Amino acid sequence: MTKSKTIILLIDFHGHPILGDEFTNNKRYSELQKLICNVNNISDLYFISNMPYSKDTKLAEVLKMARAVGYETSCVTQTLRLNTGDHTIEELSNHIKEKHDFKIDPSDTQIVIGGCNISGCVVSSKQISAIYWSKAGYRTTIHAPLCAEYEQPGINQVERTYNGFEKLYSTIRRYKCFDIRMTSEWSEVIGL
User: Fold this and answer.
1) What's the distance, Cα to Cα, between the start and end of the chain in Å?
2) Residue 63 is part of which domain span?
3) CATH code assigned at 50
4) Which of 99, 120, 123, 156 gives the lowest tally of CB atoms within 10 Å of its CB?
C-alpha cells in the first residue's frame, strides 16, 4: 500500500507586503514555523513554492530551516526555469516526480494550500489553485493562517479579509467545489 503524502503548496506566498499590516505580513511565516516544529511524519510532507526563493528571502529562510530538520522543499518555477509562477497541475506533478521521486495521485496525496491572495491565486486565478486540485479529485484544503488578502478593497486588513473570504466562498459555489476544506488547525490535515 502506498503511503499518503501531503503537499504544502505555497502560491505567491510573499504577496504584496506594502499593502498589508505587520500581522498580515508575518502570520504566514509564523504558521509555517509552527508546522515545521511540530510534525512527526516529516517524510510524508513536502513544501512546494511557485515563486523563486530570491523573490521571498523570508520564505527561503523558513524553508532552509525546514530542510535542516529533514523536510523536502522545492520551487517549481526554478526547476522549470519559467518567468511566471503559473503552472499546470501536470507540470507540478512532473516537478514532484523529478525532485522528490514520487508520483502524486488523488488516491494518496492531499494538497494543502496557502498564499496570496486567498480570493484570487489561492482559490482560482492560477492553474494550480484550489478549485483545479478539487476538480482533479485531490483532497484539497486551504489553510487560512497560511493565507493573506491584499487584493480586495478595504480601508484596513480586516475589511480586505472579509471581502476576500466572501469572494472565496462565491468562487467555491460558482465552481461547485464544495469538497474544498478550510481549516486553521494543522491537526485537521496532518498528524501532530
Assistant:
1) 22
2) 5-188
3) 3.40.50
4) 156
Residue with cell 513554492: 49
CB 80, CB 48: distance < 8 Å: no
Count other Cβ atoms within 10 Å, centred on residue 173.
10
Q: What is the DSSP string of 24-80?
A: HHHHHHHHHHHHHHH-S-GGGEEEEESS-GGG-HHHHHHHHHHHHTT-EEEEHHHHH
In this structure, what DSSP letter does residue 50 have?
Answer: S
pLDDT digits (tens, 9 = 90+) for 15-44: 999 998 999 999 999 999 998 888 766 668
What is the rounded CA–CA span in Å between residue 83 and residue 110? 27
pLDDT digits (tens, 9 = 90+) for 85-104: 568 899 889 988 988 888 99
Question: How far apart (Å, rounded) are the C-alpha atoms in residues 28 and 34?
Answer: 10
Q: How many domains does the chain have?
A: 1
Q: Is the peptide bond before 163 cis (omega within 30 degrees of 0)?
A: no
Distance CA(134)–CA(131), nearest Å, equals 5
pTM of structure: 0.92
Backbone angles phi and psi of 92, in degrees to 5: -65, -40
Below-50 pLDDT ranges, the chain: 1, 81-82, 192
